[in-house]
């Protein structure tokens, strides 16, 4: 039978237990040890776990050390352990064990020997090949393997079609032994992934015989070809991806970093796995070996023990398949998972505009006109079907009279003609196997460049064909859990496939992986992940810990009214109430008198922030506030964020004589500053939440989702619960921007009396929930805040 494994024994001292987990410092916090124990058991017991550890409590290290300790212990188990063979004689079991141990040891030793030879070597350049192929046969459709016999093509044409994507397949290392189990670690952004790798480098798992790890990233972060990089800068990511594929396949002058032999890619793999590398180091390695880091990293995955990757590569099944990322038997850890449900829904909800339909229709017509005589059988059949569908979609958009929401089946029926007779299952398979969107857009770009020599290629054709492809793949599913949202008319029409149940998309991941762990600093309400994403509720476990900051370093206050006794409740209509906005300005101004350094104020939306600040400019409130704190606002454009934050930080650190008490930053919940930005120490001695950021209830998409939840649940309040949860998850993320370490301190002001409701307070993060005070009178909140900062000032003297 199988031999279970346990986390490091709890009997040791914190320092001993920390060492057993590979923790890089003398002793972990108690909550980190509890986190690692719970994580180890969740992985061992094949659970779906939701783990919450507030920012500043060392969550990343806890994830890495807990998961890799399990990985190491598991490897030892299957080197010396037993097999599941209850019904077999002992001698048969013993023979099988010995055979398995020998195979595992041989595989491990072979890899270890290769990597040991690589480590001391100087990273040298690999030789490379250039190949060119400039004729138009490159755009012909590759014969789908599932149809084969009914397509009669010449050997010459077949050879031209087979060239497409050959490089990707050749360098996928499908014959290499697959290391299992792996630990996949995913996060949202490139910087978050870099931070995870940085934490891994601190641990013993990166030294001596390092864990074999590889980091995956998009071409934008890994491409080293100057031509492709220039196209990315001029025309965007989609054009970059197209050109990369063309140059990798040799359809254009072959990319110099794509050697046709296996050896350079094997060399990249061995160098990459011989030590823990982040993306920047992999790019440097690729330059040194003259090998593409993007494909080199993909080539390294099969032998890796740890794979660090962005969300989109794991969450979307087609992307996983194209990257050849198998989750079977592996551990999946998704960090910063607070927005996972919305991310999954967005990944499976493509939109298609009337303009894109028209562009794709023109491109498809040009493609058929050029290649129709060379295509037969299924390829010709499906191309003409695609053309019929595009014509039907265009006619449908022209006939739209009002916004509507329909089921996918109803939508296909309403397209008219022969659309409802199309075999979408066969069409879906053909779209995936032939990658026709890439071929049509590539040919369209070639025509455009011939007609416009010397100019940078336009990308609308690329985007159009890929948008059509994504929409048709979603439509092919015709799920009862999907809707088509129709907005606009004629040339302004937009068709959006809306996935209503994220479990549809997430279920394969949960079913195939050994264990799935969702982690974040603010995961409340945690039960929502179980209820929405998990079908087998028995697999669910959760872990939540308090904060490492002392109790008296946090003051959380519900402010029910302003200085003149006007109730604070910022519903939809409240932003038109100038009397209420004036009362709010008086409250904020009074708080700025007593709160030192930096204050961050979050509004529910850009519209509410704009309306409020306009009113405060009219009534002189902004001028009064500016006499105490220099004023900053969230910028309209992302590229301006760093500039604003730098100026805000400087104003906090060195206040001007005209604004002697620091600075105040107005921001939006869910905006550019509410996630991924750390307002530690003086940058946020106070976080104010103005109102409650409920999603727009008038949104058709939200209305459909709420109705779907209402129809599927036995609870009458299910849709209301979801609506409130969406609001509070956004609140919790904004609150989590402050308090970044054990010695930090801050005040949290919740300016809306609804925060005092028990059901709302229950959704606040665990570490702040028990510390919330309610102040029915404004004056009492002033007294509490003044006393808090007076105490902090006295303690630092």
Explain what you see.
It is a single chain. The chain has a seven-stranded parallel β-sheet with strand order 3-4-2-5-10-1-11. It has a seven-stranded parallel β-sheet with strand order 14-15-13-16-17-12-18. A four-stranded antiparallel β-sheet has the order 6-9-8-7. Strand 14, helix 28 and strand 15 form a beta-alpha-beta unit. It is globular, with a radius of gyration of 29 Å. The protein is an alpha/beta fold and 797 residues long. The chain has four domains: 99 residues, no CATH class; 199 residues, Rossmann fold (3-Layer(aba) Sandwich), CATH 3.40.50; 153 residues; 246 residues, P-loop containing nucleotide triphosphate hydrolases (Rossmann fold), CATH 3.40.50. About 6% of the residues have low confidence. It contains 33 helices and 18 strands. The protein starts with 13 loop residues before the first helix and ends with a helix. One of its GO terms (molecular function) is DNA binding. Pfam families: DEAD_2 (PF06733), Helicase_C_2 (PF13307). One of its GO terms (cellular component) is nucleus.
């Amino acid at each position: 039978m199988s031999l279970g494994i346990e986390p490091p024994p709890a009997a040791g001292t914190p320092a001993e237990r920390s060492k057993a987990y590979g923790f890089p410092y003398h002793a972990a916090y108690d909550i980190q040890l509890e986190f690692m124990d719970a994580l180890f058991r969740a992985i061992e017991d094949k659970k779906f776990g939701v783990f919450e550890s507030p920012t500043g409590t060392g969550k990343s290290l806890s994830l890495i050390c807990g998961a890799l300790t399990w990985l190491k212990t598991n490897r030892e188990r299957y080197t010396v352990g037993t097999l599941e063979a209850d019904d077999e004689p002992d001698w048969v079991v013993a023979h099988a064990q010995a055979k398995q141990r020998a195979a595992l040891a041989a595989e491990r030793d072979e890899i270890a020997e290769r990597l040991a030879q690589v480590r001391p070597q100087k990273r040298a350049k690999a030789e490379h090949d250039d190949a060119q192929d400039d004729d138009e046969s490159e755009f012909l459709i590759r014969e789908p393997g599932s149809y084969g016999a009914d397509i009669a093509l010449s050997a010459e044409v077949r050879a031209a079609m087979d060239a497409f994507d050959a490089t990707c397949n050749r360098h996928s290392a499908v014959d290499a032994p697959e290391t299992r189990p792996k630990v996949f670690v995913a996060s949202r952004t490139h910087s978050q992934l870099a931070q995870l790798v940085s934490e891994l480098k601190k641990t013993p798992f990166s030294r001596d015989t390092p864990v074999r790890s590889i980091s995956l990233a998009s071409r934008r972060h890994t491409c080293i070809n100057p031509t492709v990089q220039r196209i990315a800068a001029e025309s965007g990511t989609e054009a970059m991806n197209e050109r990369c594929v063309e140059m990798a396949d040799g359809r254009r002058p072959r990319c110099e970093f794509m050697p046709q032999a296996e050896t350079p890619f094997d060399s990249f793999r061995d160098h990459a796995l011989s030590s823990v590398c982040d993306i920047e180091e992999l790019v440097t390695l690729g330059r040194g070996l003259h090998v593409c880091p993007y494909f080199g990293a993909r080539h390294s995955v099969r032998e890796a023990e740890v794979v660090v990757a962005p969300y989109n590569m794991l969450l979307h099944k087609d992307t996983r398949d194209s990257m050849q990322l198998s989750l079977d038997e592996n551990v999946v850890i998704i960090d910063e998972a607070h927005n996972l449900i919305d991310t999954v829904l967005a990944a499976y909800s493509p939109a298609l505009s009337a303009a894109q339909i028209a562009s794709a229709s023109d491109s498809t017509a040009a493609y058929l006109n050029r290649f129709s005589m060379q295509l037969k059988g299924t390829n010709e059949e499906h191309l003409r079907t695609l053309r019929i569908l595009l014509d039907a979609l265009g006619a449908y958009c022209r006939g739209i009279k009002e916004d509507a929401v329909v089921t996918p089946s109803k939508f296909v029926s309403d397209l008219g003609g022969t659309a409802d007779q199309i075999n979408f299952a066969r069409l879906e398979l053909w779209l995936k196997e032939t990658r026709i969107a890439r071929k049509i857009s590539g040919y369209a770009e070639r025509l455009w460049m011939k007609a416009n020599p010397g100019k940078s290629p336009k990308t609308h054709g690329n985007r159009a064909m890929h948008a059509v492809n994504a929409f048709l793949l979603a439509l092919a599913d015709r799920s009862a859990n999907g809707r088509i949202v129709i907005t606009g008319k004629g040339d302004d029409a937009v068709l959006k496939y809306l996935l209503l149940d994220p479990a549809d998309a997430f279920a394969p991941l949960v079913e195939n992986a050994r264990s799935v762990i969702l982690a974040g600093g603010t995961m409340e309400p945690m039960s929502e992940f179980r209820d929405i994403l998990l079908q087998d509720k028995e697999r669910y476990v959760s872990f939540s810990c308090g904060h490492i900051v002392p109790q008296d370093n946090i003051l959380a206050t519900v402010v029910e009214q302003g200085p003149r006794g006007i109730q604070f409740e910022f519903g939809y209509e409240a932003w038109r109430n100038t009397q209420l906005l004036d009362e709010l300005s008086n409250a904020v101004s009074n708080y700025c008198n007593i709160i030192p350094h930096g204050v961050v104020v979050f509004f529910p939306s850009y519209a509410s922030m704009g309306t409020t600040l306009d009113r405060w400019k009219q009534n002189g409130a902004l001028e009064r506030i500016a006499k105490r704190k220099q004023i900053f606002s969230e910028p309209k454009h992302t590229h301006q964020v760093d500039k604003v934050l730098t100026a805000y930080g400087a104003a906090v650190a060195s206040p001007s004589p005209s604004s002697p008490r620091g600075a105040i930053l107005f921001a939006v919940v869910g905006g550019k500053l509410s996630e991924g930005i750390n307002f530690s120490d003086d940058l946020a001695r106070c976080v104010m939440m103005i109102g409650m950021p409920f999603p727009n209830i008038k949104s058709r998409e939200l209305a459909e989702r709420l109705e779907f939840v209402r129809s599927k649940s036995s609870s009458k309040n299910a849709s209301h619960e979801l609506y409130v949860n969406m609001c509070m998850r956004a609140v919790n993320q904004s609150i989590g921007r402050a308090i970044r370490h054990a010695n930090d301190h801050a005040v949290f002001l919740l300016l809306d009396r609804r925060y005092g409701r028990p059901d709302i307070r229950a959704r606040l993060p665990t570490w702040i929930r028990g510390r919330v005070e309610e102040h029915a009178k404004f004056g009492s909140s002033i007294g509490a805040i003044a006393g808090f900062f007076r105490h902090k000032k006295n303690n630092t003297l």
